[in-house]
Amino acid sequence: MCLERGVLEPAVIVHHIDHLKDRPDKALDEDNLQSVCAACHNRLHPEKGKHQEEPKQRKARVIQARANPEII
After folding, report:
1. For residues 66 and 72, what is the distance between their CA atoms, to the nearest angstrom?
2. Is residue 10 within 8 Å of residue 39, measured between CB atoms?
3. For residue range 30-71, what is the model confidence (pLDDT) as tens digits?
């Protein structure tokens, strides 16, 4: 993709043209694989960069521990 724009970047990610979720049978099909740089992969998958909902705050359950009087 970079070469099409006249830019030379190292390809560090193998992109599945047909998503694995939709076509797991094409996982290792060479016609379905494309070498891309990280920036191009982010452009191909903008949904992966979106922030997800803020995680819900979890309340910690606090317990009080006491020494066993039989051992002391």
Report:
1. 11
2. no
3. 999 999 999 999 998 888 766 555 566 777 778 888 888 887
Assess contact for 40 and 1: CB atoms under 8 A.
yes
> Phi-psi bin for 6: left (phi > 0), alpha (psi -120 to 50), beta?
left
Does this model's pTM top 0.90? My answer is no
Domain ranges (residues) in the chain: 3-48
Among 48, 44, 43, residue whose Cα is nearest residue 16? 44
Q: Which residues contact 37 (CB under 8 A, 6 or more apart)?
A: 1, 2, 9, 10, 11, 12, 13
Tell me the sheet residues that pair with 5. none
